[in-house]
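Lab meeting, item 3. Inverse folding demo.
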């Protein structure tokens, strides 16, 4: 035990010393330590005070959090069968520990004592928010239940933790299990040389001739966008769409039904009508009714535009290739062709200007101009894979701000998509401002033997998106770790990420990093103009697509009692009825691979992306009015949004930055929907 690196004192994660056998003993031990910390609070013979209870509780479980953040980050970014097995073993332990704490009557009594006298305590706004969040954490999660109901809640939470893990494992297994092996180059007609080269290298790495296409995004998206062979596009699209929906060991249908049933049952047990009512009580949106009203208002504005765009695309495909009925596997292919025709804009023309290293440097330079940050690549801290880059982040005076990890390329042990996470939160402890350790994980096009990693414009905006989340974590400057960084309302957390994407469309920003990887030439201004002109291309269809995901989520979590649902596919089809443009594909089902809501934290919260778009469009309009590198506006954003975490209500923070509440007009104007 004493040799277990996870149980030693460490600042940055000691990845190179960690073996898989270290995790379970370390988690078991740190749960014991956390329980001792809780007992110290309960056994304190002095009356409950803000310091000896509220603050003490906020620091409880620090060691456990550090160990589990390392473990679960690796379970997403560098997993294997052994790690997945450990995840299944420890998840019930963690669920039980969380419930032991929340359902501890003596602990809740001390928390409630302070909460009941909060008006007389002369608390700062941050202290008041901590107390409020802490009390609600207990009250909303069963502290007031009777013993039988508490026992039922424990069982539900343990089962939910197992099911969401299994869901994610099944999706990853399905992603890894599929490959399209092509031996005839004719099937690759239309595919850019860089994508062909990557497919050939992948086949070679598996000791096969020809080319291999997979469901990893850097392989899947170019194939769907450029390959002329419609039957192969269909095969690949159906494979992507039936993850978790096949009659095999990785089927997620029953898991989806079990998760929504248990979430509904849990919400009812806690006194809420649905899981959505439970979740949204603590969000900016507040109620499912508000979310549906917001979504349906946008739907009314977007649907006519989406239908026009769809009809135009269908007519274009018919004129070009005699396609009578546009299918889902035609969407990216004909959209790209039409976009190229309308704007003379070809993604392949842009890619040479977006070498990954240059884009990273550009993001860093923009963060420097806006927020006075400096990034230096370092090799002095451990990583879990050779692909991972590490940086020391300082302010303009050279003062340390954060460690930053970046992991950019797909691997068999990494789930699809892109996300930001943290290995250590920011907090002030014993008078010391402990700085955070932040990471972003992506799945971008890999370098090949002849070319560096060249990003599509979509990948560029994804990098900026995740980097926006990272800045929210890095610039955190609060007292308490549970209110720090991205610990904000889920429908506010996407504001920093989405607002940063806007710089990717601005000439002044692009000139900093969009340089040809061979010649060093800055991206021609005609390309920049075309990027801007094409920004709202098919925005109606994109808006409809995002709304469809949010509405599906709300249907699963805020509608009819889920015990009446027998078919995942039928339920999903009904939920999509108002947003559907393409014909349904019988073999496909989105819910069975909808990891955001069944594995991640977005259940009853997927609407947040669109909600935050209203905020981000309104916020960026302020930058446009004053200048995209205007120091005063950037400082206001840093001081009132990025550094404040969850210390105040999101709308109060936003108004302090912007001077007024956000209106959807900026979003509708940007999207061309006015």
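The presenter then showed the designed sequence:
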């Amino acid at each position: 035990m004493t040799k277990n690196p996870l149980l030693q004192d460490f600042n940055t994660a000691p990845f190179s010393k960690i073996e898989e056998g270290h995790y379970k003993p370390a988690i078991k031990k740190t749960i014991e330590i956390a329980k001792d910390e809780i007992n110290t609070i309960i056994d304190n013979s002095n009356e409950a005070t803000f310091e000896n209870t509220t603050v003490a509780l906020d620091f409880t479980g620090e060691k456990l959090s550090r160990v589990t953040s390392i473990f679960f980050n690796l379970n997403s970014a560098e997993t294997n069968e052994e790690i997945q097995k450990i995840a299944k073993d420890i998840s019930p332990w963690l669920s039980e520990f969380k419930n032991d704490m929340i359902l501890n009557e003596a602990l809740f009594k001390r928390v409630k004592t302070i909460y009941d006298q909060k008006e007389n305590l002369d608390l700062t706004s941050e202290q008041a928010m901590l107390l409020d969040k802490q009390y609600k954490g207990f009250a909303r999660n069963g502290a007031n239940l009777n013993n039988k109901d508490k026992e039922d809640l424990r069982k539900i939470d343990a089962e939910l933790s197992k099911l969401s893990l299994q869901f994610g494992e099944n999706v990853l297994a399905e992603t890894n299990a599929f490959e399209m092996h092509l031996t005839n180059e004719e099937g690759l007609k239309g595919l850019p040389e860089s994508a062909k080269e990557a497919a050939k290298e992948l086949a070679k790495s598996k000791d096969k001739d020809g080319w291999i296409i997979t469901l990893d995004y850097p392989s899947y998206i170019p194939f769907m966008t450029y390959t002329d062979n419609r039957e192969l596009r269909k095969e690949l699209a159906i494979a992507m769409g039936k993850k978790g929906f096949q009659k095999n060991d990785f089927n997620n249908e029953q898991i989806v039904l079990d998760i929504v049933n248990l979430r509904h049952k849990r919400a009812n047990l806690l006194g809420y009508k649905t899981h959505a009512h439970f979740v949204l009580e603590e969000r900016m949106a507040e109620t499912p009714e508000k979310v549906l009203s917001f979504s349906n208002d946008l739907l009314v504005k977007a649907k006519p535009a989406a239908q026009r765009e769809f009809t135009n695309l269908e007519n274009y495909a018919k004129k070009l290739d005699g396609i009578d009925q546009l299918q889902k596997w035609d969407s990216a292919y004909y959209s790209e062709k039409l976009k190229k025709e309308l704007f003379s804009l070809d993604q392949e023309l842009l890619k040479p200007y977006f070498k990954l290293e240059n884009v990273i440097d550009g993001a860093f330079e923009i963060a420097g101009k806006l927020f006075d940050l400096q990034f230096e690549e370092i090799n002095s801290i451990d990583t879990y894979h050779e692909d991972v880059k590490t940086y020391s982040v300082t302010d303009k005076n050279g003062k340390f701000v954060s460690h930053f990890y970046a992991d950019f390329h797909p691997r068999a042990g990494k789930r699809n998509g892109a996300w930001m996470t943290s290995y250590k939160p920011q907090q002030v402890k014993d008078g010391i401002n402990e700085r955070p350790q932040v990471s972003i994980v992506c799945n971008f096009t890999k370098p090949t033997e002849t070319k560096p990693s060249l990003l599509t414009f979509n990948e560029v905006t994804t990098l900026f998106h995740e980097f926006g989340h990272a800045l929210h974590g890095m610039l955190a400057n609060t007292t308490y770790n549970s209110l720090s960084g991205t610990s904000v309302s889920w429908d506010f957390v996407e504001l920093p990420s989405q607002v940063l994407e806007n710089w990717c469309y601005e000439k002044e920003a692009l000139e900093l990093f969009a340089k040809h990887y061979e010649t060093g030439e800055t991206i021609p201004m005609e390309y920049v103009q075309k990027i801007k002109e094409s920004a709202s291309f098919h925005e109606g269809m994109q808006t409809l697509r995002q709304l469809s995901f949010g509405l599906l989520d709300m249907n699963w979590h805020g509608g009819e009692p889920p015990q009446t649902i027998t078919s995942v596919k039928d339920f999903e089809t009904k939920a999509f009825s108002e947003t559907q443009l393409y014909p349904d594909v019988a073999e496909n089902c989105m819910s069975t691979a909808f990891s955001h809501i069944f594995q991640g934290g977005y259940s009853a919260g997927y609407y947040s992306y669109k909600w935050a778009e209203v905020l981000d469009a309104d916020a960026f309009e302020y930058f446009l009015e004053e200048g995209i590198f205007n120091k005063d506006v950037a400082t206001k954003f840093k001081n009132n949004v990025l550094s404040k975490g969850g210390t105040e209500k999101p709308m109060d923070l936003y108004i302090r930055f912007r001077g007024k509440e956000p209106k959807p007009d900026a979003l509708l104007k940007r999207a061309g929907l006015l």
